[in-house]
Structures are given as structure tokens and as C-alpha cells.
Amino acid sequence: MMPFKLAVSAEMVFLDLPFIERVKRIHALGFSAEIWSWADKDINALAATGADFTSMTGYLSGTLTDPDGIRQLLDSARESLGIAERLNCPCLNLHGTGLGEGGLPVQPVSHTTGRMWLSACKSLEKIARLGEDAGRVFLLENLNTAVDHPGTPFARADDTLALIEAVGSPHLKMNLDLYHAQIGEGNLIELIQRAGSAIGEIQVADVPGRKEPGTGEIHYPAIARALHAMGYTGVVGLEGWASGDSETALERFRQAFTL
């Protein structure tokens, strides 16, 4: 039984192929596709693949907390919504701040103040209204700061969940990335149960190494059973590298989430 919609990040598998061919291969294998920034993509060619796109990055630049950064974030979110419409992509991904080369924050912070929390909440309320007007959902992704994204504000799953619950809009949900959560917080089943209806998507990769399920310490079949038990039927996205052959990695992912 397959109770979830399985998607695969085209940024991280079939790396020997041109990007459009990666999307076609993912689609041919029966998965939905996900992309990061759309700015360097041929949108017409992507749309012509016939693939089902479940999420894409929802901004090009900006932050949640400072006036210039908020303006950039809102402007590029509006642009991204136009691209999402062309790809018929329902969800757009956000982070606590803009990420640059190597996934590092453009404006790293060592401590988030109360004023920053209030500003982030107000910014996300505006983002949610943009999503409502466009009939799309923005997803705020948790990240880990220990390995991949040091200095990113609002990175922990608890942080993203608190902001989403404070905004309280069906057009702002959580992209709960279990790879990042395992590194930063652990207790994954308890975490998904606590997040509940705030979850808009689950993303997965194993720890360590950020490769497909079955290559590390996370027992993803148990995660799949817990998600099914709580009634989750949404997207589970593989955002991890293939440990070897990409097609084999995708099959291992499928098996981990087949009940």
C-alpha cells in the first residue's frame, strides 16, 4: 500500500544527466518532482515534461526580519508564484533566511531576538496572504545548523512550527525535513505527531551522509507507519543524494514508504 505521494528532488539524483532529463527520468519512474531555485531553469521545458511538480523554492532572495530583506522576500515570492502557476506546482518552499553558496545563510545570526521573532511572524503573515490570493501554499522548512546551515535563524523544527502556529493560516505550512531534524533534534516520531496538521510536506534523507533511506541510522519504515497512523496522506519527498545508482536509490526510497 502506498498511502503517500512520493516526490524526488531533481537537484540531487541522476547527476550525470541534464536537468530536464533528470525530471523526465523521475517522472517515468512514477515519482513527482521537486526543484530548488527556478531562476536557472528553462520553465517552458520543465512544463513540457508532463511531470507532476509538488514543490519549488518560493523566493530568490530576502529575509524574514529586516525591512530591505522583507521587501526582497515578498517581491521574489510574488515572482515565484507566477512560476508555480506555470508549473502547476502547489507548494513553495521558504527558509528562515536567504541561503547562498553551499547552503550558508546570506545573513548569518548567532542569536534570534524577540524583535526578530515578531518581525518574522508578521512577514510570514504577508507571505500567507500572497499564497491565499494565488491558491498556493508556502512551506517553511526546518534546517540543521550543526552540519549544513550554520547561522540560519529559525532553523529548528520547533522554531518553524512555532512560527506556523502563530500565523495560523492554511496557506503557510511546515516542510518537516527529517534529515535536518534528526541532526538538530531527534525524536522524529514524537516530532511528527506534535506537528500534526501543521505539516505540509515531509522531506527525507538518511543520517549521516544525506543519502536515501536505508543508508544510515533512521528507520524510515517506522516513520512511514507513524505518518500513516496519524492520517498523513501528503507528499513525502526524497531530498538526498543517491549512495550509488540513482534508480536503485529511488526504489529503496519507495520501499521504505510502502506499507
From TrEMBL:
GO terms for molecular function: isomerase activity. Keywords: Isomerase. Signal peptide: none annotated. It holds the Pfam family AP_endonuc_2. The active site is at E141, E239. Residues 44-249 form the Xylose isomerase-like TIM barrel domain. Gene3D superfamilies: Divalent-metal-dependent TIM barrel enzymes. PANTHER family: ISOMERASE. Belongs to the hyi family. This is TIM barrel protein. It comes from Pseudomonas lactis.
